[in-house]
Write a structure and sequence with these properties.
14 helices, 7% strand, 509 residues, mainly alpha, three-stranded antiparallel sheet
Length: 509
């Protein structure tokens, strides 16, 4: 019974709880539905308000854009109207110009017709005059044309020759004047000593008894000295002197120094001779190096390879036609630099090339080839610049000079060698050059006589007046100059003087 009661109470309690919870849930649901309805109504009101605001803003924006578009349309319409007015004005102007051009064209056509008419009349007149001239002269128009052209050709040729002569004369005068100014200025600023070297050296002796000591027992001392130095000792009747003879100046200098040391020392025997020769060779080598360094210092040429400096020093003992080659090279360097400064060329390059231009002569007796080729090869070997190598190769005209500095080195070399007393020339080669010069002149047609004068620096040519005209002597002079340049070697320059003279001789009896 109690259990049933408890169950009934539990059932009633459950039912009551369920009813209460349902009531509470329905109340909350109703409240939530009311709240949701309120929120929806407020949202609809707010959305409506927002929609109205957006529509209003859109209308305002559309109105604003429409106003701007209207303004732009008005501006463009105004611009179009302005352009149309300008086009109309230009069209009117073009119409006026077209009218003017048409009027001018009509005028030109009219004048052209008049000119054509006058031209036809002139042609008729010329035709009649030509026929009349042919009748009077007895020549056809073609024959007259040939005759006239022949006369004009002769006249033009004569005038051309005269013009050539005048132009060449003026150009030569101006070029000679400027060249003389530059060369004279260079020569005045630079003058090197000229030493005429010989192939012998004289060693003074304190007494004649020393000759016997130099010869030695059975000539062993003199043979030893000659063998070690390669120089001939000439001991003759010359009082208190021994002559050293040899073509190698360096060996001759070694022999001279060794002999002087032996004379001072007094102990003359083969072992002592050998010792003195070795010591003299070292002294000469040191002196050669010092001379090369002094040459670079005197000329202001720096950065040379030590071997080139030594070769420059060897030129101290090398002569060319009696002229000391080292002094000649220094003089050429100074002359080339001075002329380069006057002409605005590269002074350092001209001086360097001038100093090295004869470097091949230092070893030309040891190496096959000309001193020009040897010098070029040495400059290449010791990393000299291409311009210096070119100037060395071109200083005797073996290759054509393509730089101003190379031409200046040529000129400086000729100036240094052409100074009075600078070089000796054998009589035989001198006479051959004069004979060749006269032979070239006499081989030209129309030449009557030729004379080489002023030591071969001028040739005077007498032409036959009946075979050569005044205009032809210009061509003759040019031909002789070209042949002399191509066939003859000479220092400096040669003046070709062509003379045409007509004489009329009568005798009153």
């Amino acid at each position: 019974m109690q259990v049933a009661i408890y169950i009934a109470i539990a059932v009633v309690t459950f039912i009551c709880g369920y009813a209460v919870r349902r009531y509470i849930a329905e109340s909350k649901i109703k409240a939530a539905e009311q709240e949701a309805k309120r929120i929806v109504e407020e949202g609809e009101k707010q959305a409506e308000t927002t929609k109205k605001e957006v529509l209003l803003e859109a209308k305002e924006e559309i109105h604003k854009l429409r106003a701007e578009l209207d303004k732009e349309i008005r501006d463009r319409r105004n611009e179009v109207q302005r352009i149309e007015r300008r086009l109309l004005q230009r069209e009117e102007l073009l119409d006026k110009k077209v009218d003017t051009l048409e009027q001018r064209e009509e005028s030109m056509n009219k004048k052209q017709k008049e000119i054509q008419k006058a031209h036809d009349e002139v042609q008729d007149i010329l035709k009649k005059q030509t026929q009349e001239l042919e009748r009077l002269s007895g020549l056809s128009s073609e024959e007259a044309k040939v005759l006239l052209l022949s006369e004009i050709e002769k006249q033009i040729k004569h005038e051309a020759a005269m013009m050539i002569r005048d132009v060449e004369s003026k150009a030569k005068e101006e070029a000679e004047r400027k060249a003389k100014d530059v060369i004279s200025y260079a020569i005045q600023k630079c003058a090197a000593d000229h030493v005429a070297e010989t192939t012998v050296s004289v060693v003074p002796l304190p007494n004649d008894e020393m000759k016997g000591r130099i010869i030695g027992r059975e000539g062993r001392n003199i043979r030893t000295l000659e063998t070690l130095t390669g120089i001939d000792l000439i001991i003759d009747d010359t009082p208190e002197a021994v002559i050293l003879s040899g073509f190698d100046p360096i060996r001759r200098e070694v022999a001279r120094l060794a002999l002087e040391k032996l004379i001072v020392d007094g102990r003359i025997h083969p072992a002592r001779i050998e010792e003195m020769v070795e010591k003299s060779k070292k002294e000469v080598d040191n002196y050669i190096r010092e001379q090369g360094e002094q040459a670079t210092f005197d000329t202001g040429v720096h950065g040379l390879h030590p071997e080139l400096v030594k070769l420059l020093g060897r030129l101290r003992y090398r002569t060319s036609y009696g002229q000391n080659v080292l002094k000649h090279s220094i003089e050429v360097a100074h002359l080339a630099a001075i002329m380069a400064a006057e002409l605005g060329a590269d002074v350092k390059l001209a001086k360097r090339a001038g100093l090295l231009h004869d470097i091949g002569k230092a070893v030309d007796h040891e190496i096959e080839g000309t001193h020009v080729q040897i010098g070029s090869d040495l400059a290449k070997k010791y990393k000299e610049s291409a311009d210096v190598i070119h100037a060395i190769a071109a200083h005797h005209g073996d290759v054509e000079a393509t730089t101003v500095e190379a031409v200046l080195v040529q000129a400086a070399d000729a100036i240094s060698g052409a100074r009075p007393g600078a070089r000796r020339e054998t009589l035989e080669s001198y006479i051959k050059r004069l004979e060749k010069l006269e032979e070239i002149a006499n081989s030209i047609d129309g030449v009557e006589k030729s004379f080489a004068i002023q030591a071969g620096r001028e040739v005077r040519i007498m032409v036959k007046p009946d075979a050569v005209s005044d205009a032809d002597i210009v061509y003759i002079a040019r031909d002789i100059v070209k042949r002399v340049e191509n066939e003859l070697e000479y220092p400096g320059q040669i003046k070709v003087n062509v003379i045409r003279e007509t004489r009329a001789i009568e005798y009153a009896k």
